[in-house]
Write a structure and sequence with these properties.
With about 375 residues, this protein is α/β, with parallel strands linked by helices. It is about 35% helix and about 15% strand. The chain has a 7-stranded mixed sheet. The chain has a 3-stranded antiparallel sheet with strand order 11-12-14, covered by helices on one side. Strands 1-13 form a two-stranded parallel ribbon. The structure holds pyridoxal-5'-phosphate.
Length: about 375
C-alpha cells in the first residue's frame, strides 16, 4: 500500500487501551501536528533543531517547571530527563545508591517489573527481598506488618503500580526515615498527587502515563546525588545529568517536548493532579463495579484493596471467551485489551488521557458481553 492510501484521519482513532506506549491527549497530538512543519520562532520543526538551541532549552525548562508545579517538587530535588527507559533505571538506581556502599538494598517484590529491577540490582551489590508476592501470582501488596526494613538499608525500593498485574499502592509503603525510599512510578506517574518529600528517588518512563517513549523522568533528592562511586558508567551517573541540566549528552528532545505538553494539559485543562485523581477514580471504579456485579463472569486479578487506577486486570471463564471478547471489542473500536501472558485475560489500561467516554464504551461492552455469554 502506498502512504496516501493508508493516510488515516482523527476520526479513525479507536479507544486505545494499550499498556504502553499508550493513549495521549488529543489536544496534545493536535498541537504537535500543528507545530510539526515549523515550531514557532524556530524556522524548523522541533525534531530538527539543536538540543543547545535556546528554543529547545526553554521547552526543557518549561517541562521541568510544569512538573515541579504539578507535583510540588522543592529545590531539594533534582529533576532529570534521561533515556534508556525505566529499564536503565533498574541499573542506575543500584549503581548510584548501592554499588560500593557495603550496604544492602531492600526490595518489595509485587510484580513483573520489580522482579526485573531486582535482577539488575543484584549485579551491583547485596540485595534483600523483604516481601515477595510470587506465591499468589502478584495479586496483593504488603502492609506494614508484612515486613520490616532495616534502618541501615541502602534504600527501600518498590513499584507503585505494577502495570502487568494491575496492583497499585494506595500510599507510600512504611520506610524508616534513615532509608531513601525509591519508586518505579512508570505506570502511575501524574495519575494523582505524590508526596515527593517522602522519597529519595522516583522515576518514570513517559510512555505509559506521561508522554511518548524515549524519555524517563528522574526526581532525586539532591543530597543522594554525590553518593555514587565516580567509576560507574558515565551515562548511569546521576551527577552528570543533574550538573548538566539533562544536557550531558543529547537528550530525547521530541519526547521531552511532548511530555511538557502533557504536563501543561494536566495543569491547564484538567486543573491539576487532585482533579486527575478524581477522574481516574471514577473511571476505574466504574469498571471494577461491573466486574464485581458480574456474578463471577469477570474475575479481577488484583485483590480489591490494591486495585490499580491505571491498569484494570481481569479474567473471563475461559480462554475461548477471552479471545472472543478481544475480537468483539476490537469491532467496537475498543483496542489493545489483551492481558499480558503472565496474568492472562484482559487488561484495560485507562491512563490519564483515556477519555471517560472510552471507559464508558468499554463498560457498556463488558455488561453486554457478559449478558450474552454468561
Ligand atoms: C513499562 C514499565 C517498565 C519498563 O519500561 P521501559 O521504558 O520499557 O524500560 C518498568 N516499570 C514499569 C512499572 C513499567 O510499567
Amino acid at each position: 500500500m502506498t502512504a496516501s492510501a493508508t493516510t488515516a484521519s482523527a476520526t479513525d482513532r479507536v479507544y486505545n487501551f494499550s499498556a504502553g506506549p499508550a493513549v495521549l491527549p488529543e489536544s496534545v497530538l493536535r498541537e504537535v501536528q500543528e507545530e510539526m512543519m515549523c515550531l514557532p520562532g524556530a524556522g524548523a520543526s522541533l525534531l530538527e533543531i539543536s538540543h543547545r538551541d535556546k528554543l529547545f532549552i526553554e521547552i526543557l525548562q518549561d517541562a521541568e517547571s510544569t512538573l515541579r508545579s504539578l507535583l510540588g517538587i522543592s529545590d531539594d530535588y533534582s529533576v532529570m530527563f534521561m533515556q534508556g527507559g525505566a529499564t536503565l533505571q533498574f541499573s542506575a538506581v543500584a549503581a548510584n545508591l548501592l554499588r560500593g556502599t557495603g550496604k544492602k538494598a531492600e526490595y518489595l517484590l509485587t510484580g513483573s517489573w520489580g522482579k526485573k529491577a531486582i535482577e539488575e540490582a543484584k549485579k551491583e551489590g547485596n540485595v534483600g527481598v523483604l516481601f515477595d508476592a510470587a506465591k499468589t501470582n502478584y495479586d496483593r501488596l504488603p502492609t506494614a506488618s508484612d515486613y520490616s526494613c532495616p534502618d541501615d538499608a541502602a534504600y527501600l525500593y518498590y513499584c507503585s503500580n505494577e502495570t502487568i498485574q494491575g496492583v497499585q499502592f494506595a500510599s507510600e509503603p512504611e520506610c524508616p526515615d534513615s532509608v531513601p525510599l525509591v519508586s518505579d512510578a512508570s505506570s502511575d506517574f501524574l495519575c494523582r498527587p505524590l508526596p515527593i518529600d517522602r522519597y529519595g528517588l522516583v522515576y518514570a518512563c513517559a510512555q505509559k502515563n506521561a508522554g511518548p517513549a524515549g524519555v524517563t523522568v528522574v526526581v532525586m533528592r539532591k543530597d543522594l546525588i554525590d553518593i555514587a562511586d565516580e567509576n560507574i558508567p558515565g551515562y548511569l551517573h546521576y551527577k552528570n545529568h543533574h550538573e548538566n541540566e539533562s544536557e550531558w549528552n543529547t537528550p530525547p528532545t521530541f519526547a521531552i517536548y511532548v511530555l511538557g505538553k502533557v504536563a501543561r494539559w494536566l495543569r491547564d485543562d484538567i486543573g491539576g493532579l487532585a482533579n486527575m485523581e478524581d477522574i481516574n477514580r471514577q473511571k476505574s471504579e466504574s469498571l471494577y463495579k461491573i466486574i464485581d456485579e458480574s456474578n463471577g463472569f469477570y474475575r479481577g486479578h488484583a485483590q480489591t484493596d490494591c486495585r490499580s487506577l491505571m491498569n484494570v486486570t481481569f479474567n473471563l471463564p475461559s480462554e475461548e471467551l477471552t479471545t472472543k471478547f478481544v475480537a468483539e471489542a476490537g469491532s467496537h473500536r475498543l483496542a489493545a485489551l489483551k492481558g499480558h501472558r503472565s496474568v492472562g485475560g484482559i487488561r484495560a489500561s485507562i491512563y490519564n488521557a483515556m477519555p471517560r467516554e472510552g471507559v464508558e464504551a468499554l463498560g457498556n461492552f463488558m455488561t453486554d458481553f457478559a449478558s450474552r455469554n454468561g
